[in-house]
Amino acid sequence: MLKAGVLGAGHLGKIHLRLLNESEKYELVGFHDPDEISAKKVVDEFGYRYFENINDLIAAVDVVDIVTPTLSHFDCAKKAMENGKHIFIEKPITNTLEEAEQLVGFQKKFGVKGQVGHVERFNPAFTAVKDKIQQPMFIETHRLAEFNPRGTDVPVVLDLMIHDIDAILSVVHSNVRQINASGVSVISSSPDIANARIAFENGCVANLTASRISLKNMRKSRFFQKDAYISVDFLEKKVEVVKMKEAPETPGDFDMILQNAEGIKKQIYFENPDIAPNNAILDELNSFADAIQNNTTPIVTLEQGTKALRVALQIIQEFN
């Protein structure tokens, strides 16, 4: 088992503490949080070991799980990597692109592994169809959330949209050619609603919408490709896969046949992939343990986290 320690014991940090404690791949050593009053409440409620000094925690573990505010991600990760520790770091990877690129360099310099917490990659609905998403040419995403004061210190792009940016970059194997975007601040000092259009060099276009002042929650993505339409509901953990193939010469009574203006006939059929219930955060943490123990590439690398941040920051620049 890998010895793990958590930096940050806020809302998400407490979830990570619980899951690392439950995991069969980690031994939870303890946590550090600069807010000693809040930290002692966590100790009283859950019994986890509290380290007053961050250096003592880092020295006692193999893996440092960084669940602190984004502004401190770089400093925490740098300190851990300099001490030869593997890092799991919540999204976005860092506050600036320069910091993210430095972490990628540290990873090679100090011979450690890193993974970024883009948890939607482990959503069972997405994993059920990811291999079916092949050369999508149009993508549409909607990530809408009811207002929550937590997270409003950063633009909605870094708070919500970055989930969809990362998922899109994982299935579109092409460089970004152009980005157009707009954002509106309604309640916060930073944009609460944003829309972005990302054009890729291979011709794919992705249209992303994110809002944190919606009346209802929604997390849906739609992928359109030749002879297929794939819809992923990240919130309800449901998928729709609609495909087309050459129509049989003699269609059955219940076959759905479409004919275009040129007279070409296609048969529509549906696939229903199995969706296995899971805890996505536990899965991402366990996958990182597997990557360390088997010396394989993590599912969401620091390089991929950096690419998602780069696109997110380009979108934010378009607001100005």
From TrEMBL:
<dbReference type="Pfam" id="PF01408">
    <property type="entry name" value="GFO_IDH_MocA"/>
</dbReference>
<dbReference type="Pfam" id="PF22725">
    <property type="entry name" value="GFO_IDH_MocA_C3"/>
</dbReference>
<dbReference type="InterPro" id="IPR055170">
    <property type="entry name" value="GFO_IDH_MocA-like_dom"/>
</dbReference>
<dbReference type="InterPro" id="IPR000683">
    <property type="entry name" value="Gfo/Idh/MocA-like_OxRdtase_N"/>
</dbReference>
<feature type="domain" description="Gfo/Idh/MocA-like oxidoreductase N-terminal">
    <location>
        <begin position="3"/>
        <end position="118"/>
    </location>
</feature>
<feature type="domain" description="GFO/IDH/MocA-like oxidoreductase">
    <location>
        <begin position="156"/>
        <end position="216"/>
    </location>
</feature>
<dbReference type="InterPro" id="IPR036291">
    <property type="entry name" value="NAD(P)-bd_dom_sf"/>
</dbReference>
<dbReference type="InterPro" id="IPR051450">
    <property type="entry name" value="Gfo/Idh/MocA_Oxidoreductases"/>
</dbReference>
<dbReference type="GO" id="GO:0000166">
    <property type="term" value="F:nucleotide binding"/>
</dbReference>
<protein>
    <submittedName>
        <fullName>Oxidoreductase, Gfo/Idh/MocA family protein</fullName>
    </submittedName>
</protein>
